[in-house]
Amino acid sequence: xxxxxxxxxxxxxxxxxxxxxxxxxxxxxxxxxxxxxxxxxxxxxxxxxxxxxxxxxxxxxxxxxxxxxxxxxxxxxxxxxxxxxxxxxxxxxxxxxxxxxxxxxxxxxxxxxxxxxxxxxxxxxxxxxxxxxxxxxxxxxxxxxxxxxxx
Length: 151
Known about the structure:
It is a single chain. By secondary structure, this protein is mostly helical. Helix content is 70%, strand content 0%. It has helices spanning 2-48, 70-77, 86-118, 123-135, 138-141. It is flat.
């Protein structure tokens, strides 16, 4: 009787320890993905708020000593040479973004309907794989490839 109770207790303890490990791994993975996703945003803010026009990222400073919003003023008022057509280009970007969103929703809805009607044995695996790709930041996909052409 005692052996049966102790084996049940050990199994419960192992299952609880496994759940804790899975939760800890999930939290660590979430933190890594969060840092990986927010690092480019931080770098953009660092460059945008630098009054010396983007020289801070190479100096090793974590934040500009005197942050300035002059770069944003130049964009809105189109004072910089490369920003003469900013609002026209911004409108084009909004148009293309909305059209892409509409087409993505349309094609995704049709594909989802088709997969649900096909009654595949592993249909959920197909749809879940497609959803996991949205969880991976695009920055993961930009990995430089090293090709060595030896002499």
